[in-house]
What we know:
By secondary structure, the protein is α+β, with helices and mostly antiparallel strands. The chain has helices at 26-41, 125-137, 157-164, and strands at residues 46-48, 58-61, 69-80, 83-88, 95-101, 104-110, 116-122, 153-154. The protein has one domain (12-164): Peptide Deformylase, CATH 3.90.45. The protein has a 5-stranded antiparallel beta sheet, sandwiched between helices. The model has no long low-confidence stretch (mean pLDDT 94).
Amino acid sequence: xxxxxxxxxxxxxxxxxxxxxxxxxxxxxxxxxxxxxxxxxxxxxxxxxxxxxxxxxxxxxxxxxxxxxxxxxxxxxxxxxxxxxxxxxxxxxxxxxxxxxxxxxxxxxxxxxxxxxxxxxxxxxxxxxxxxxxxxxxxxxxxxxxxxxxxxxxxxxxxxxxxxxx
Length: 166
């Protein structure tokens, strides 16, 4: 497949609410494969379709040492608790920030085969990635959760290449 360029701020596609996928066809399967390639090439753990310039509700997530998976038309159905996390984003390269995410995240969506799935995660990178990527589908970036952009920390290129961003 093809690694697509990651869109960065101020690209307007990152601030638009993505459209629901009306049907899962070959074009969606190709998009998912391209998104997975893009995620790995950029050393990320997740990518939302708007990050590759496609305003559709599709995300891919690849946890370290696990096979990547895709969610189509995902939504968060339940959250609880709160925790501090250190977060970055492929679409805001070179920076990280400390913000609050939920401890428990339950999301639902469709698999590429069209089957409804629920994913429950607590206090880990997957919970954080689910919130982060689904935020992208709503035009929200992690920096929108910061009290101030002044709290962003600049990271060096070597750390970024080692997978320090999402």
